[in-house]
Amino acid sequence: MEVALNTIGYKVGDHRILPVWVDSQSDPAKASGAYAEAVEGKGIQAGVLNWHSSVAIAVMDVAAMSVGFDFTAGFINIANFEYMAVAGVGGYTSALLVINTGLAPWFAMVAGGISSAVLGLIIGMISLRLRGIFAACLFWFFGLALMGLAIKMVWLTRGPWD
Question: Residue 124 falls within a domain, yes or no?
Fold first, then answer.
């Protein structure tokens, strides 16, 4: 990474890149704590993680999503297949805001969370009176519809991941 940054003079456009090394011990617990400290304490705006740190962040993401699945499948007894699609809308929203408008990543992540919450609220209000297989089919349909939109709206999403 140092060689690549040195080649471009540690600059991208008008922005200067200052690498901050976070994880040197390959311990996922220390890596996630050090990454959080770097984001909050040092104010880094982007991070490139090594393998162990990436696994730790992915595990935390899956754990957070499993709470939503546990709530819908365990407590209210509805098979919900669209909550990951709603999270994907938030991810797409934040990424497209950063790429297309140049918005700071932290504000874009908040906007992505808000867009996911609004979409989840709308779908939740539509499905409020459905139970059993009817709710499962509605959630499945919304997940498939959002996936189809992401693939077909090439002008917005830049198409499928081939």
Answer: yes
Distance of CA 79 to the CA centre of its chain: 22
Q: Taking the model in full, what pTM does it have? A: 0.58
Q: What is the pLDDT of residues 13-35, one digit of tens each?
A: 777 777 666 555 566 677 677 77
Predicted confidence (pLDDT) per residue in 103-138, tens digit: 888 899 999 999 999 998 998 888 888 877 787 788
Residue 73, domain member (yes or no): no
Distance CA 162, CA 81 (A): 24
Q: Which bin fits 43, alpha (ψ -120 to 50), beta or left (φ > 0)? A: left
Beta partners for 12? Answer: 15
- What is the C-alpha radius of gyration for the chain, rounded to an integer number of angstroms? 19
- Please tell me the distance from the alpha carbon of residue 100 to that of residue 156, in angstroms, as a whole number: 10
146 and 85 in a common domain: yes
HSE, side-chain direction, 13 A CA sphere, residue 138? 16
